[in-house]
Amino acid sequence: MSAAYLPTRSLIRLSGAQAQDFLQNLITTNIDSLPENEARPGALLTPQGKILFDFTIWRDGDGFLIETDASQRDALARRLTMYKLRAAVDITPVAEDGVTVFWGDEADKGTVKDAAFAKAGIALTRAPGRKAEGPEEAYHALRVEAGLMLSGHDYALQDAFPHDVLLDKTDGLGFRKGCYVGQEVVSRMQHRGTARRRVALVSGDARLPASGTEITAGGKPVGTLGSVSGNKGLAIVRIDRVGDALARGLPLAAGDVAVTLALPEWTGLAFPVEAQEAEP
């Protein structure tokens, strides 16, 4: 069975007459265009455009469910309540524990289709609660294969822009909606094409070292290793520096392990072919 129960994920339900407008004006996801039975990634940003909370969101009857890391749920609920003011919105942590995901031949057993995995060519669905058994590690291995990141596993909150973790490629950023927190910074990065930190697929000649290990090119840092599954992993890297290293034939390594780096094919991104002046 291709399924995994994720006890480390939790849910918040938002309902009320103004729930959709409230979310549309606050988070990165375009809620107005969110169809039924589809889950999209999203984030609540700092005013400086960094990811304060990351999550997956979908419609649930007349409201919405936000799935996030269990360690973030209460803080996210408090932050949403802070923005609520007098809006007609109810924000309620869901008592049901965990989330179940299904993929491959089992994908139709879930509640909603995951748009991010679909972009990577993987049919995966999500359902609240414990609907099946399966190791959480299998899900994270699938994430590594797909090139999809999670905070706490791959990057620290308040330390990454949405472009850094590919929210611009997974329907997690709405560029044709009104203002939301951090929108000005995100729009500037999009229109100027200044996003130079991107998700890379890491393949090692041997088992990769622990998450947090520095990735180097010719001995100089270009990124940091995130999730690891055997000799495969994810990292956020400076694509200009990696492109320069590839052009010069410099060796890439994660700690003492020789690695190769590739950008997820489904993103349409490529390492720059010419060396660029490095930013400080």
Question: How does this structure look, described?
Answer:
With 280 residues, the protein is an alpha+beta fold. The protein has helices at residues 19-24, 73-84, 115-119, 136-146, 183-192, 239-248, and strands spanning 3-6, 9-15, 38-45, 51-60, 63-69, 90-93, 99-103, 112-114, 124-128, 197-204, 214-217, 220-229, 232-238, 252-254, 257-262. Strand 14 and strand 15 (257-262) form a beta hairpin. The radius of gyration is 19 Å and the shape is globular. 45% of the residues are buried. Residues 275-280 have low confidence and may be disordered.
List the helices and strands and how they pair.
Blueprint: E1 3-6, E2 9-15, H1 19-24, E3 38-45, E4 51-60, E5 63-69, H2 73-84, E6 90-93, E7 99-103, E8 112-114, H3 115-119, E9 124-128, H4 136-146, H5 183-192, E10 197-204, E11 214-217, E12 220-229, E13 232-238, H6 239-248, E14 252-254, E15 257-262
Parallel strand pairs: 3-8
Antiparallel strand pairs: 1-7, 2-5, 2-6, 3-4, 4-5, 7-9, 8-9, 10-13, 10-15, 11-12, 11-14, 12-13, 14-15
